[in-house]
Amino acid sequence: EGIYVRNTNTGNVRAAIGKTYMLQEDEELWEKQLPQIVKTLLSSESHTASDKHYAKEWKNAGKDRGDEQTVSETWDATKVVSFQVPHNSAVQLYDYKSKMSRVAFGPDMVMLGPDEQFTQLSLSAGNPKKANMWKAIALWLSPMFTSDIIVVETSDHARLQLDLQYNRHFEIEDYTNQAEASKLFCVPDFVGDLCKAMASRIRGAVSSITFDDFHKNSAKIIEMAVFGTDPETRQVRKRLKFPANNFVVTSVDIKSVEPVDQRTRDSLLKSVTLAIEITTQSQEAAARREAERHEQESQGKLERQRIEDEAAAEKARRGLLSLQAESAAIESTGQAKAEAFSRAEAARIEAEAAVQEAKLKAQAHKIETESELERMNAAREADIKFALEQNN
Questions:
Q1: In the chain, how many H helices and how many E strands?
Q2: Within a 10 A sphere around the Cβ of 258, how many other Cβ atoms?
């Protein structure tokens, strides 16, 4: 990709990159000096962003010397040093000649100038954290977890060992702003500073409360100690930001809480066992009361259903009696009505017969009267006729 060339007359060193280059008569290849740890990180196959490959070296010191010897034998110092910045990470290069630094973000290929060097990060590692255990030249920006083990002491002098895990990331808004990007590398050991700051906050919060209170509300107490409270809403904040390097902590997880003192551990075990027994007994009592309540409710429902059935049967029987009485009343009313109707009809027939008889008698009397009147008229006319005849 390129080589370092030094002018033997002026001593100036430059990088010839991206082309075939033939040295002039006053030029020579120049070997760029890099720290051995940078060579090891650049030569490793794993990513060097908060590099896990070198983080294991503190567990195996012999492997460290073997890797350095291998890298020294294969390293070509005249070639331009290049590094593929991993995705979502950053690397800082410092120019000793111009006293300027620049930050490159991944995925990007960076090439060192003759006067440039990588900014090394020496991070804390292990549980509990130990300084200078994790070497890196690139820095992950995406969310990651950092674990730590701290020892706290309550107000009643109970010493506890907390295994904690923090979810953290770097927050940057403008990747083109070098002033803002350079903040990422302002704190060389941000992991150690994070763990120290969190441990200090948690120790201060736990030291003012008793063991029983911490045992009951450990998660709430630690979250309040880490994130603090909003003075306006009185609620626990959702995150904690370190403005020096735009480092943000979004959550804290309590993996375990163990007493350091054996007597405290035994007391805790007894209290936990007693709490489990009390909880079990309370659950059994609650289940028993619930079963009794269900049984009483079932008996009440059954008794109420029986009463409702009896009431329905009584209502049906009353309806039947009412219908029977109504039927008997209708039956007796019909008979009386029929008898009354027959008597009325008989009386009507008798009355009509009497009227007819009276009419017939009147007609007969009329006939007799008319016949008598005609007879008398006829006799009178006969008398008159006889008298006239006598007078003549």
A1: 8, 15
A2: 13
What would the pLDDT profile of 365-375 be if each residue is shown by its tens digit? 889 898 888 88
Residue 172's alpha-carbon distances to 29, 136, 142, 175, 181, in angstroms, are 40, 20, 11, 7, 7
Q: What is the pTM of this model?
A: 0.60
* CA angle, residues 44, 109, 137, in degrees to nearest 5: 45
Angle at 233 between CA 171 and CA 245, to 5 degrees: 20
Displacement of CA 253 from its chain's centroid (Å): 18
3-state secondary structure 209-233: CCHHHHHHCHHHHHHHHHHCECCCC
Give the residue among 175, 160, 181 at the shortest CA–CA distance from 245. 181
CB burial string 180-205: b at 16+ within 10 A, e below = ebbbbbebebbbbbbbbebbebbeeb
Average pLDDT rounded to a whole number, residues 330-338: 81
Share of the chain above pLDDT 90, in %: 9
For the segment 87-102, what is each residue's pLDDT rounded down to a tens digit? Answer: 888 999 998 888 888 9
3-state helix, strand, coil in the chain (%, to 5): 50, 25, 25
Residue 70 has a pLDDT of 62
Q: How far apart are CA 240 and CA 252, in angstroms?
A: 11
- Letter for the amino acid at 60? N
